[in-house]
Amino acid sequence: MSAWAVRYLKPLGVLVGSTWKEGLRRRLIIVGLLLTVAFLVLYGLGAYFAFREVGDLTEVRVLAAYQLLSFGIFVCSFLGTMLVIFSAAGVISGDSESGLLQPLVARPLGRWQVLVGKYLGFISLFLAYQVLLSGSVIMLTRLLADFSPPQPFQTLAFLALQGMVLLALVSLISSVLAPVPTGIVAFMAFGLSFIGGVVRQIGMLLSNETAEVIGRIITYLLPSDNLFRMALSGLQPPSSLLGDILGNLGPFGIPVEPTTFSVVYAIVYLAACLGIAVALFARRDL
Amino acid sequence: MLLIPVETASPAISCEGVVKSFGTAQALRGVTLRVPRGIIFGFLGPNGAGKSTLLKILVGLVRPTAGSVLVLGGRPGSRPVQARVGYLSEQFRYPSWMTGRELVHFHSALTSAGRPVHTNPTDLLRVVGLAEAGDRRVGEYSKGMQQRLGLAQALVGDPSLIFLDEPTSALDPIGRLEVRDLLLGLRGRGVTVFLNSHLLTEVERVCDHVAVVDRGTVVTHGPLERLLRTSAARIRVGHISTELRIALAARLEEITGFPAAYERGVLTVPTSAPGQLPALVKAAVEAGAQVYEAGPVRGSLEETFVALIREHEANDGAGRE
Ligand SMILES: Nc1ncnc2c1ncn2[C@@H]1O[C@H](COP(=O)(O)OP(=O)(O)O)[C@@H](O)[C@H]1O
Ligand SMILES: [Mg+2]
User: Fold this and answer.
1) Which residue's alpha carbon is nearest to atom 26 within ligand 1?
2) Nearest atom in ligand 1 to B55's CA
3) pLDDT tens digit string along A96-149?
4) Are residues B82 and B95 in the same domain?
5) What is the chain B residue with the closest CA to A6?
6) How do residues B117-160 score in pLDDT, each as one tens digit?
7) Which residues contact A80 (CB under 8 A, 6 or more apart)?
8) How far is CA A75 from the centre of its chain?
9) Which of A199, A227, A221 is nearest to A73 (CA)?
10) What is the pTM of this model?
11) C-beta B25 within 6 A of ligand 1
12) Residue A49 belongs to some domain of the structure
């Protein structure tokens, strides 16, 4: 390894490794897997019985399958969010209060490395979990409901981006608030973003400009719901009149077509959250 | 090998007017210190005096509000300095899911980002008396074992300067003795030890230099020998008559201002000035006593410490009214 890699990358690798080890050692990973299997079994049973009944009306079948899958993906997004919030709520204030952080910071690495290393550890756990979970949901829908979403990788990519943005936000909140308030605020942010999306959707449906503007502002302040809708758009079957109507009535939101701007915006948002978190952490008294 | 362009003669630590405020409260009110290399330095003070705060500033965990600090010739918290420094925090908390050996490995891996590290975890664990417990989880350790592990952690990477914040607070007397030997061993290898403590006997036994801090200011500092100043003179006069005893006591009190005590042939005369001893002996002889033996009584660190703190708090309190 070059001196550069030893100095900058090795500590990040060490911190990622220790996050995984902790996940295994504390049985977080195994319990997570068991719960996931339980969810997948329930989802599979639902899909199996639902689609045994549906007849040959192709269009209805496709729409029903799409509704089921969007519900499944909503649960994936929700579970991924919980994982992110619970794993990272104590990343700065909590660990600094308990005294776990000080010995790390006293080592020859920059504080940004401590934070980024922990971020990478949590995000790699999250990504592995989300790919497994939402990948399985998509596969099950395909097997049991005979529905293949047009762009499953787009869905995975946006679910991943949603978790990454949320984790950056949680890291930032954690540098200001204690673990429990951090979890509560992060969860409220997730919920508010969802509500913002619904308000925007209603505004669009009813042509109410005020509602749409408010919804749009919330969407930019907290982009997680918008990312979820872009994930949904990878599942949407080719449009039809019936499909548009049903899609609009879907409980988990209308899919939003991804745009380069919204992707860039999400990445800038993520970088800004992490950047501010690093800056606050760098001047924090531990 | 790394060549560190550091003058060996430069002090291990130098602080100049270090101030630290937490909101309106001042934890440090202008601390100036110089710690030579290769010694065991004791930083003493009552609870809340600001010891841990200074230590955290020296390790780069806390930023001073004002003042300048140099550690091993560099900025505290900077990478080259951290690579040569070990730290045992007052809280000594480590991830409960790791084993002791894994913790040592983990810290060597992190330290090796700063410079090559040749740490043998087994050796380190043996040094702190955890040879058998190395594969058990930290969560199963007793407080004392966790503190020992913290010591091993602080020793990772052969630091040339090691900061210990109350390193024996959770240890039994045997453990304290072991830590004392460990510190002496470190000094023997040229390591500078900065020891925060309020355990005076511990400090008295190992420290070369001490500083006494109270309410955020250094009350006194210097070599331990100089600090343990004379607090009394002892004059052995043998058995003397009651009249002579009374006359002598009166005469000596005139000189020192303190009443003298007589017991089993020995006069003990409290004095704050060691230079008075010849005058006291002369007075005793002139009063008609035979002097067999005379010398200063060395105060313990405890007496010195208590006197210093009481004096400081009295002045400080008066000054603040
Ligand atoms: N993070 C902090 N916030 C506010 N006050 C603090 C903080 N850390 C220390 N103090 C205050 O600074 C003073 C010195 O504390 P400390 O350095 O821990 O003392 P010592 O280690 O000598 O017992 C105390 O009065 C303490 O209450
Ligand atoms: Mg303290």
Assistant:
1) B48
2) 17
3) 999 999 999 999 999 999 999 999 999 999 999 999 999 999 999 998 888 888
4) yes
5) B113
6) 777 888 999 999 999 999 999 999 999 999 999 999 999 999 99
7) A126, A129, A130, A133, A159, A162, A163
8) 10
9) A227
10) 0.86
11) yes
12) yes
